[in-house]
Amino acid sequence: MPTALAGLPQSVTIYEVGPRDGLQNERVTVPVEVKAEFIERLVACGLRTIETTSFVHPKWVPQLADADVLISGLRRTDGVRYPVLVPNERGLDRALKLGVTDIAIFASATETFAQKNLNRTLDGQIAMFEPVLRRARAAGLTVRGYVSMCFGDPWEGDVPVGQVNRVGRQLLDLGCTELSLGDTIGVGTPGQVRELLRSFVAAGTPIGALAVHFHDTYGQALANTLAALQEGVTTVDSSAGGLGGCPYAESATGNLATEDLVWQLEGLGIDTGVDLTALVRTSVWMAQELGRSSPSKVVQALSE
């Protein structure tokens, strides 16, 4: 029987990033038909928010060069959100043309990563996102803002909480409907998670506007997730089978596996609406398509 802990939410929204963040770094090109089936399988497992792809230029992320084809042919299910990452106004133009209703933008908390990932300064990235957000919100789209390198940067080291706050608050002030705080290289620990979340709340940000995105480089993703839940966060990013990394940060290993997250949440009596058995089967299937095993501990345990 599940054993609940005091102060935790009754339900959690899982923001599934496998089809986008999970696959973008794969060296082997995944056929668009396989990507579409992956998304449909995830929907069948009960996931209701699935980030599908990115309208980034194919030169930067070749794996997602088929974004328009994928979105055009996707069989949508009522009640499911299919957000798409949009890097700039050109990406927004593509999203609007294809009828996308939920988008995300990807900002950096550090100067170096902003330069490497976006070829912009910290202030320059905000200037680039301003027209994207203004036009998207005017068109009725929801806009999620990612802030990467929230706890550490491979070039700059520890990232000051105030710096993360400044970038995050700028995105919210521009009109982001949700802010996902990312531990891009997986160096964060539970105490740091609490400190960062409390700093946002102290600055006037509702905890319901915040999500978390953890990588498991140092094995801290689940511990960090629990700390976030204890602070009142109810949206957690994860990737089916633990797929993913970051093409611009070589030290970033896989995302928190959705199966590992669901196992923890179910054990705490927290509702996710996800069929774990079906999800494990989906990740085993995708691992076979990629020609390697899943790094998820729960997938490994339940598929033996």
Strand order, main sheet: write it out.
1-10-9-8-5-4-3-2
Which structural class fits the helix and strand makeup?
Answer: alpha/beta
Rounded to an integer, what's the Rg over CA atoms? 18 Å
CATH class: Alpha Beta
Instruction: Estimate the global geometry from the Cα principal axes.
Output: globular
Number of domains: 1
Biggest sheet, in brief? Answer: 8 strands, parallel
> How many helical elements?
12
| Fold-level CATH name | TIM Barrel
> pLDDT under 50 segments (min length 5)?
246-252
Topology (SSEs and partners):
Elements: E1 13-16, H1 18-22, H2 32-44, E2 53-54, H3 67-73, E3 84-85, H4 89-97, E4 102-108, H5 111-118, H6 122-138, E5 142-148, E6 152-153, E7 157-158, H7 161-174, E8 178-183, H8 190-202, E9 210-214, H9 221-230, E10 235-238, H10 258-267, H11 276-290, H12 297-302
Parallel strand pairs: 1-10, 2-3, 3-4, 4-5, 5-8, 8-9, 9-10
Antiparallel strand pairs: 6-7
